[in-house]
From TrEMBL:
<dbReference type="Pfam" id="PF09418">
    <property type="entry name" value="DUF2009"/>
</dbReference>
<protein>
    <recommendedName>
        <fullName>B box-type domain-containing protein</fullName>
    </recommendedName>
</protein>
<feature type="compositionally biased region" description="Acidic residues">
    <location>
        <begin position="131"/>
        <end position="140"/>
    </location>
</feature>
<keyword id="KW-0863">Zinc-finger</keyword>
<dbReference type="InterPro" id="IPR000315">
    <property type="entry name" value="Znf_B-box"/>
</dbReference>
<feature type="domain" description="B box-type">
    <location>
        <begin position="54"/>
        <end position="100"/>
    </location>
</feature>
<dbReference type="GO" id="GO:0008270">
    <property type="term" value="F:zinc ion binding"/>
</dbReference>
<dbReference type="InterPro" id="IPR018553">
    <property type="entry name" value="E2_Ub-conjug_enz"/>
</dbReference>
<dbReference type="InterPro" id="IPR057668">
    <property type="entry name" value="E2_Ub-conjug_enz_C"/>
</dbReference>
<keyword id="KW-0479">Metal-binding</keyword>
<keyword id="KW-0862">Zinc</keyword>
<feature type="region of interest" description="Disordered">
    <location>
        <begin position="111"/>
        <end position="153"/>
    </location>
</feature>
């Protein structure tokens, strides 16, 4: 029997594309459900399991990770991540546990399971944060979180931390140019640098996205009706795709407009959007507005309803250094002893010209040696060098993004003691009081010192793993597994969507950071998939701004001594107004460490506080009030132009 499904689909597609956008009186006025999602973490709650189906080998909370410890008081088995969250404070902090021993041959399976980044149960993280309140952190204990007895070299947290963070190094021994020893794991999340031909196509895509107003038409109250919304989505997506084809090949575009068959161009669209996503991950400061429009358009295009009407999906997995080498059976490139030298960052700070030249020569020689060793008829010299340059780009990004955070931690530890003695200047106490100067938290000097230190440390580990978080964000947004809800969050309509992969990664980062520090101050709530942080795109954009916040402050601190040496007038101004360069530095730092971490910045009391995302909100609030500070002219003299990634 002949198959007429394709003809039927094309007929429906043509009818929808040519249908006038008039309102139909008989059209159902029932809109998309807009109930607020009240979950603080992105995850999908597991369905209750029948007794006979429940796997005793799994964690009782997340039901995804293998159980590793047995709590003697709870009489339940947990993975280490869930146990640490459940027993972080309160009476459970004093519980004891036993290691669950297994035969050595089962361990590789546990390692393999961590690579899959399973979806956590939402309920487990609700219990993890039970009793936490974003608006206050008085209920949190100032004690070290529960430590696990015995060797932790093979537990879930250590393995996930190693895969997600490239290994947690002590802060004092961390170097900007340190390369992760597990290069194969890193390479899976390092996008390949764009070629010349790809850059030409990227310019066309950027130009099209720059004039595209997709979300202005789709994410509005007028488009809440399901039927109307689907028709508008299809019309806008088909129009945008047609425009791309016409701008690149007029004849092919003319054919597409006449026949309205997008399936033959599936590969073209997949590659075009993939290189746009890949370019953004490697250059977070680029495509700021265009990237959001592209991801929301793709998010709708990969939905089942639109895919059925278009006949194809424009999604294509990201092209990474690992996938390129794997396709040519050349993963041994990542194991070469010279890989670290070939991809190192040649930073000029504190080095002589001769040393810089020597490092450049060593890097070039390593690249030539690796290329000569693995070049073949299947794997060209350009492909090998493209992968090596991409890994080097990743290393430079880590150096560039982590450096200001490392310097801020050093400034905190250098200028402010952890505990303020009676002989110390009380003017530079970090203590804050709720209700004073807009603060919504009350901390003593010591408590605030640790609160700032742990926030900066957490930001550093997020920056260290930013490429992987970008890739997980991309997968969460375009997987289609969790549909979004268009919801009024109080700041307009936003797409609230659960993000299990990025949520799991963030909880691993948070848990490992908590284990490293002396004790944890404040809430451990991670807002993701709720009205505070609606989806993974909002999350990744939020933490991509950390460097933009800290870099101007570090730059200004470094320039103060140079300004004083530049002219006598500037030195006199600094001495008479601020009491000298050192006093000026401490004035800037104490103001930032107090007011940028005081729980302020939200529209109401309940959305502010000490939660993980509230710390960054407070920092942005300080940035918005910088022009009112006494030392703002010093920022301008040092070249400050704004917190947008640019610095004069």
């Amino acid at each position: 029997m002949a198959d007429y499904s394709g003809i039927s689909r094309l007929r429906r597609l043509s009818e929808l594309l040519e249908h006038e956008a008039d309102e139909d009186d008989d059209m159902s006025s029932e809109s998309v459900p807009v109930s607020a999602v009240g979950v603080c973490v992105g995850g999908i709650a597991d369905e209750p399991m029948d007794d006979e189906e429940e796997d005793a080998d799994k964690c009782i909370e997340c039901r995804h990770q293998r159980s590793e410890v047995f709590c003697e008081q709870c009489h339940d088995h947990f993975c280490r991540l869930c146990y640490g969250g459940q027993h972080r404070k309160g009476n459970r902090r004093h519980h004891t546990f036993q290691e669950i021993l297994r035969a050595p041959e089962t361990e590789p399976k546990a390692i393999e399971a961590t690579n899959a980044v399973p979806v956590p149960a939402t309920s487990s993280f609700r219990k993890y944060n039970e009793g936490d309140d974003d608006s206050s952190d008085e209920s949190d204990d100032n004690s070290r979180p529960s430590r696990f007895r015995g060797s932790s070299s093979r537990n879930i947290c250590s393995l996930m931390g190693s895969f997600f963070l490239g290994g947690m190094r002590p802060l004092e021994s961390a170097k900007p140019t340190t390369i992760n020893s597990n290069m194969r794991e890193r390479a899976k999340f390092i996008p390949v640098r764009l070629t010349y031909e790809e850059r030409k196509r990227l310019r066309t895509l950027e130009a099209a996205l720059n004039v595209c107003h997709y979300t202005d038409k789709i994410d509005t109250a007028a488009a809440l009706n399901p039927t109307k919304r689907t028709r508008l989505q299809l019309q806008e997506i088909a129009g945008f795709l047609s425009g791309l084809v016409v701008s690149m090949d007029y004849k092919a575009g003319q054919t597409l407009l006449d026949e309205k068959q997008f399936e033959p161009l599936e590969r073209f669209f997949g590659e075009l959007f993939e290189l746009g996503r890949r370019y953004k991950i490697m250059n977070p400061e680029k495509m700021r507005g265009e990237y959001g429009s592209m991801m929301y358009l793709l998010q709708d295009a990969v939905s089942p309803a639109i895919q059925d009407l278009l006949g194809f999906s424009p999604f294509k997995p990201l092209k990474t250094a690992y996938t390129v080498l794997e396709s040519h059976d050349a993963l041994a490139v990542l194991d070469h002893p010279l890989i670290e030298t070939a991809t190192m960052v040649v930073a000029p700070e504190g080095k002589s010209r001769a040393k810089i030249q020597a490092q450049i020569k060593a890097k070039d020689a390593a690249i030539r040696e690796i290329t000569r060793t693995f070049m073949s008829t299947k794997l060209s010299m350009e492909d090998i060098q493209q992968c090596l340059y991409s890994i080097a780009d990743n290393n430079y990004h880590l150096y560039f993004e982590r450096d200001p955070i490392d310097k801020m931690i050093q400034l905190l530890q250098h200028h402010f003691p952890a505990e303020l003695s009676a002989n110390d200047d009380q003017k530079y106490s970090l203590a804050i009081v709720s209700g004073s100067d807009g603060a919504r938290l009350s901390h003593s000097h010591t408590r605030q010192y640790h609160y700032v230190l742990q926030s900066l440390t957490l930001w550093r580990e997020i920056a260290h793993d930013m490429f992987r978080l970008w890739c997980l964000t991309d997968e969460d947004l375009l997987s289609g597994a969790a549909p979004y809800q268009l919801t009024d969050t109080g700041q307009g309509l936003h797409r609230i969507q659960q993000s299990p992969l990025i949520s799991r990664a963030m909880h691993v980062i948070l848990h490992t950071t908590q284990e490293r520090l002396d004790y944890w101050v404040g809430s451990s709530v991670i807002h993701l998939g709720d009205k505070n942080v609606p989806n993974a795109l909002m999350f990744i954009d939020k933490y991509a701004q950390v460097g933009h916040i800290l870099r101007p402050i570090v730059k200004t601190i470094d320039e103060i001594d140079k300004l004083a040496e530049k002219t006598l007038e500037l030195k006199k101004f600094i001495d008479t107004t601020f009491g000298g360069t050192e006093t000026l530095k401490k004035d800037i730092l104490v103001d930032f460490f107090r007011e940028a971490f005081d729980g302020s910045g939200a529209d109401n009391f309940f959305d502010a506080g000490s939660c993980i995302d509230g710390r960054l909100t407070s920092a942005w609030n300080w940035c918005s009030r910088l022009h009112t500070k006494k030392f703002f002219p010093i920022f301008k003299l040092a070249g400050f132009v704004g917190f947008d990634g640019k610095f004069g």
